[in-house]
Amino acid sequence: MKFAVIETGGKQYKVSEGDVVKIEKLSDYKEGGKVTFDKVLFIDDGKT
């Protein structure tokens, strides 16, 4: 299973491709737009 742990708003979230994540309001976000998170804490690509 591929996933990543990201941080935004002082909270950490475990996410996978295609996930919809409910987070605090982002000031520059427009509904239906894409968001880029610069604090990626961990990535698991499913390989050992």
TrEMBL record:
GO terms for biological process: translation. GO terms for molecular function: rRNA binding; structural constituent of ribosome. InterPro entries: bL21-like (IPR028909), bL21-like_sf (IPR036164), Ribosomal_bL21 (IPR001787). Keywords: Ribonucleoprotein, Ribosomal protein, RNA-binding, rRNA-binding. It holds the Pfam family Ribosomal_L21p. GO terms for cellular component: cytoplasm; ribonucleoprotein complex; ribosome. The keyword Ligase does not apply. This protein binds to 23S rRNA in the presence of protein L20. Belongs to the bacterial ribosomal protein bL21 family. This is 50S ribosomal protein L21. It comes from Candidatus Campbellbacteria bacterium RIFCSPHIGHO2_12_FULL_35_10.
